[in-house]
Design a protein that fits this description.
alpha/beta, elongated, Maf protein
Length: 187
């Protein structure tokens, strides 16, 4: 079986390459509108759309994924600029938020989707720390305006759940889906 990742995310590509050295990237152009979707189900619904928007061929498995940061009942998406990134980090400072990834794995004759939730506690951040991080990393390509795998990992006091989920791809869950649902054993 050939594996296809329906994502342009360099982080997802890097995580998947840890366990699958040979896969293809096919970027999905799926609709990412989220009106009338329960907030906790948004990533799963978007992952399904992404997997379904990619052309699938015989003997292929498509992986669609979407990750959101949820803080106080609000989705913190990718900030449009550095100022919005700092505003997001101020919201997350000294609070706990959820990182939810939806994952959809699809073959020609089967589709399986679910989600993974990780709780993240950020310590209190100073204005200097937030400004330094944003000026150095410009996290406008990251939900919630931070990457736990970067310097922002020093802001995280505690996580409860899958670390790779916070980076953008719930690796343990994905490997179990591939093995148990699609008979793909990567080990």
């Amino acid at each position: 079986m050939k594996i296809v990742l329906a994502s342009k995310s360099p982080r997802r590509r890097e995580i998947l390459s840890m366990v699958l050295p040979d896969f293809e990237i096919r970027v999905s152009d799926a609709d990412e509108g989220i009106s009338n979707i329960d907030i906790m189900d948004v990533p799963r619904v978007l992952s399904i759309r992404k997997a379904q928007a990619v052309e699938i061929k015989e003997n292929e498995i498509i992986i669609g994924c979407d990750t959101v940061v949820i803080h106080n009942g609000e989705i913190l998406g990718k900030p449009k600029d550095d100022n919005e990134a700092i505003d997001m980090l101020k919201k997350l400072s000294d609070t706990t938020h959820l990182v939810v990834s939806g994952i959809c794995v699809k073959s020609k004759d089967k589709e399986y989707s679910t989600s993974c939730t990780t709780s993240v506690k950020m310590r209190a951040l100073t204005d200097s720390e937030m400004n330094s991080y944003v000026n150095r990393f410009h996290p406008t390509d990251k939900a919630g305006a931070y990457g736990i795998q970067e310097m922002a990992g020093a802001f995280v006091e505690k996580i409860d759940g899958d670390f790779y989920n916070v980076v953008g791809l719930p690796l343990c869950m994905l490997c179990q889906i591939l093995k148990n649902e699609f008979n793909v054993d990567i080990f």
